[in-house]
Structures are given as structure tokens and as C-alpha cells.
Amino acid sequence: MSAVWDILMHAYAMTPADCVAWRQRVDSRDLRLLREGNKVAGTLAAIRMGQWYGGRSVPVVGVGAVGVSPVHRGQGTATRLMTRLLQEARASGAPLSVLYPATQPLYRRSGYEQAGARYEIRVQMSALEMGERSLNLRAAEPRDEAAITACYSNMARFRPGWLDRGEFSWRRVRDPRSEQVHGYVVEGTSGIEGYVYLARRPLKDLKQELGLSDIVATTPAAARRLLRFLGDHHSLGTEVVWYGGPDDPFLLLLREQSYSVRVYMHWMVRVLDVVAALEARGWTRGLSGSLHLDVTDDLFPENQGRFVLDVENGQARVTRGGEGRLRLHVRQLASLYTGFQSAAALRAVGLVEADDASVEAAVALFSGPQPSLRDMF
């Protein structure tokens, strides 16, 4: 562990205290080390979780804390580390892997591609005086955790790319590494209808901003009550900051465009198993169609070749063979799979080869909201 901490301090400018806090959140069974001789040359954490696509949770292996010792950089160490991790992840049955890239060329060599973004949302505190106090708001308690988890899942399943959170992700929401977070719930006739976890961040001249590690409402009244609660901090508060997608529904309740939305970071996906990935996600009910794919994969020969994707009644069936009318690398399949890029956009820049009918079919089958992520990992 001392070698891991040394690598992380060099790679991410983490302090010893940061390393201790990070270690408390990561299960040792999720750590991977690459040794060169008798020295630890590289490390990463492989975190099992899920991502929502088409209303279904797809098992994924999240990759974090990738680091290489300074003396082993530039020698292919990170590539070997990632290759071994991907082989292990595929063998475990996970159809996808997801990560936030510190550098894209490394992960593109491993078959990852941009597949969505995490957006920072900043709202001026003065815009949050919604006048809604009909629902009860109180501090969250440990007994509320199951209801809070249910609230999150009810919303997240309609948000392509959002995590189907496990213990690791919930710890980051409720107890982030570098600040104190307080949780609050909103109660209505059906029980807990919304919640927020927030940290008060000091600024100059006694001012502060509110940083939200999570905010969810499952009813309109709960949404307005949470915004009213945040607005109650306006005497010293300047802005409220949280993360999500560009189509965050809370923004629709604001009277003016008193907010900013910007890309914080793109995340990348690696399709580990073409057949399993396409069959695991959900698809638009009432929409049916077929797509003949021809996939190239430099690492997994099982993903190489032609596949026929048949979609009907919200489910997919994938078989070997077909005419291969839409030709693409497994990297571009990741962008197509999540809905981040359309087949038309990919063809326009030469990343997909296809006839018009295949492009139109792919655009229809993979259409939906832009994929986003609220969580870091």
C-alpha cells in the first residue's frame, strides 16, 4: 500500500491524508498492481457497478486511480496494466467498462472512446426563491438510506449513463473525501419524495457557495421544496453547484436563465463483449428494427466480425453473421451504444462506413437523451 500511495501522490498530487481517505473507500479486492521485477510499477482500482441504458442496469467495471510510477512511465506500463484489467473484466462477464480519462490516447489504444459527459451546473442563489414550503423538510437519518436509494434509482433509470450505485458510489455521495456533507430529505404523502446532500464552501467576505454531492426529487412539489430550501441560504450564499446532464429537470423550474451548464469532463466506455452489451441494455418500446454490423476489435477476437442486431419490444437479440453494412471500430460502437454520437455524425467524420439505410436505422435505434454522469469514481 505504501507503493500505491506513492504512485497516487505523484500521479494526482494527492496528500498523505488524501491517500488514507481514499484507501478507506476502496475495497482491497478491487485494487490491481503491476510489478516490474520486484517493484510496483502501476496500480488501478476496478469497481463493479452498473450504468442505466434504456431503463435497464448494465453491469460495468469502473476504472479509477490509474497511476504509474514516475520511473516506469513511457515504457508501456499503463497499456499492459489496462490490457490485463480488460481481459479480467471480460472474463468476469461484464459487458462494458467505463472511466474518466486523464489522457485519451492511452485509453483509445485500449479500445475506449468518448461516450458521454459530466456537466457542472451553477445556479445563482437569488433565482431559487420558489415560494414552496408545503412539504416537510428535515435532516436525513441513517434509517432513511433505503428510501433515499429508491428515490435515486427511480430517477437514474431514465438518465442514460447514470450509475446504478453500489456502496462505493454512495460513500462518495454521503462522505466525500475533502469536505463535510449534510443530508436533508423532503417528505410527502408517499414518504420521502426527494433529498439533497450539500456542503457549505466558504468564499471571501463571509460568502459561501453550496456544493451538492446529490439532489433528487421524485415529485414536482419535492423539487420546488428543495429549490426553496437551497434558496433560503441566499443571505450569505452566492451559487449552488451540482453535476449531471445538460437537460437537468431542476433547471426547468427557474424563471430566468440564471445558471450556467458546462462540460466538466468526458467519460469513456469500452465495449468488452459486443453481444452481451447490446442484449443487456434496454431499447425504446414500440420501436423495432435490424442493423447489420461489422466490428473491428484489436484486443478481443470474439468481438471481431459481423453481427446482426434485432430490436423489438424493448429488447435486443444479437446473432453472428449478416451483411456487415455498418462498419466501425469497437471504439465507435461505444459512442453509438450510449447515444453520445449518432451514426450520421460518426460517418460524417469518417469513423463509420455505412449506407444511408443503415445510418437511418442506427439513428432510430440508438436515439434518446444525451448520456451523462453525476458521479466521479
**Proportion of residues in extended strands:** 35-45%
Please identify which CATH superfamily of the largest domain we are dealing with: Gcn5-related N-acetyltransferase (GNAT)
Instruction: Indicate the CATH architecture of the largest domain.
Output: 3-Layer(aba) Sandwich
Number of strand segments: 17
Average pLDDT score: 95
Individual helix count: 11
- Say what the CATH topology of the largest domain is: Aminopeptidase
Q: Structural class per helix/strand content? A: alpha+beta
User: In whole angstroms, how far apart are the ends?
Assistant: 19 Å
Radius of gyration: 22 Å
Task: Supply the number of structural domains.
Answer: 3
- H and E order: HHEEEHEHEEHEHEEEHEEHEEEEHHEH
The top-level CATH class of the largest domain is: Alpha Beta
Return residue spans where pLDDT drops below 50 for at least 5 consecutive residues. Answer: none
Largest sheet geometry: 12 strands, mixed
Residue share in helix: 25-40%
How would you describe what is shown here?
This protein is an alpha+beta fold. The chain folds into 3 domains: 2-111, Gcn5-related N-acetyltransferase (GNAT) (Aminopeptidase, 3-Layer(aba) Sandwich); 119-263, Aminopeptidase (3-Layer(aba) Sandwich); 273-365, Nonspecific Lipid-transfer Protein, Chain A (2-Layer Sandwich), CATH 3.30.1050.10. Helices cover 28% and strands 36% of the residues. The chain is built from 11 helices and 17 strands. The strands form 2 sheets. Strands 1, 2, 3, 4, 5, 6, 7, 8, 9, 10, 11 and 12 form a 12-stranded mixed β-sheet that branches. A hairpin with an 8-residue loop joins strand 13 and strand 14 (305-312). The longest helix has 15 residues, at 77-91. The protein starts with a helix and ends in a 12-residue tail after the last helix.
